[in-house]
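In response to the reviewer comment on reproducibility (Comment 2.3), we provide here a single inverse folding case reported in full, input and output, so that an independent group could reproduce the run without further information from us. The structure tokens appear first.
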């Protein structure tokens, strides 16, 4: 009987505040979708870093004849065979180095033509203008500075470059987007909480006569508060389910179908469905608990009879 009464009170409350309940559902759904999206974006950045940092190399560019007059570090002339041999030997002695590949000027020119063959200036570039280099793969990409310190400024070395720098701007942009999503999520969360509190206040005011009678006949505070808390939790649960649907549809249409980014951006290692599904229970749990806690705290102020 008591359970039936509580359920009937929930139905009455939802019908009386249908518009505000709908607003709560929408705001909770949007805030939780942004929250889940931010978590997935963080995972995506982490996966991309692990994927690309494992593939990028440290490049040690060597001086050539054309650099002698244009590069201050190459004023002593082009790198000699002895210098190249010594650089390679020193590289292979380093514990942090996994592999060392020597790239000739002709190989560099071939790679340049493959990448930029359609550019207007490609025809004016000759093999002797491109530097020889050592492509160094590190066991730990984070230790690039060890190689840079050891070889930058050495005779015959024009520069030492870490290819991670090329990716940092992309990762910084993605991290910025992640922070922006979290800020919008926080704003939507505040709006959702305000709506929940306002809904509880209106509901408590409209049913003050019923709650007063329940108090007179000896009903406990928790029993009186339960319908209001469950109304908020129910609305939050629906919002959480909607947010989960938005995350699933977003992953499906952005990556697999629709835009099909997985096919168009083959170089990007997108997170899998397992990462998406792993976030759904958390989203639903927050959607259920957050409104319930907010309603409980609001009732301590607005449900005094």
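Designed residues, in position order:
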């Amino acid at each position: 009987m008591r359970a039936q009464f509580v359920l009937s009170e929930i139905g009455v409350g939802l019908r009386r505040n249908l518009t505000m309940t709908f607003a709560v559902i929408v705001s909770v759904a949007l805030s939780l979708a942004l929250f889940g999206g931010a978590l997935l974006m963080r995972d995506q950045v982490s996966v991309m870093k692990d994927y690309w940092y494992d593939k990028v190399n440290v490049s040690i560019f060597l001086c050539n004849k054309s650099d002698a007059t244009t590069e201050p570090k190459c004023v002593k002339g082009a790198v000699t065979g002895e210098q190249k041999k010594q650089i390679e030997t020193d590289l292979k002695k380093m514990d942090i180095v996994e592999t060392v590949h020597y790239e000739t000027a002709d190989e560099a020119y071939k790679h340049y033509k493959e990448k930029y063959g359609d550019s207007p200036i490609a025809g004016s570039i000759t093999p002797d203008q491109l530097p020889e280099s050592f492509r160094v793969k590190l066991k730990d990409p984070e230790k690039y500075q060890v190689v840079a310190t050891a070889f930058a400024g050495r005779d015959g070395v024009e520069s030492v470059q870490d290819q991670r720098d090329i990716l940092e701007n992309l990762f910084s942009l993605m991290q910025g987007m992640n922070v922006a999503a979290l800020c919008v999520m926080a704003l939507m969360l505040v709006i959702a909480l305000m709506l929940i509190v306002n809904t509880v206040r209106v509901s408590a005011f409209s049913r003050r006569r019923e709650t007063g009678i329940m108090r007179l006949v000896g009903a406990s505070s928790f029993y009186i508060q339960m319908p209001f808390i469950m109304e908020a939790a129910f609305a939050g649960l629906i919002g959480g389910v909607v947010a989960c649907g938005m995350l699933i549809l977003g992953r499906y249409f952005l990556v697999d179908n629709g835009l099909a980014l997985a096919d168009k951006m083959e170089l990007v290692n997108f997170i899998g469905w397992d990462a998406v599904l792993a976030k759904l229970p958390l989203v639903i749990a927050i959607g259920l608990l957050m409104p319930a806690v907010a309603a409980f705290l609001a009732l301590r102020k607005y449900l005094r009879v």
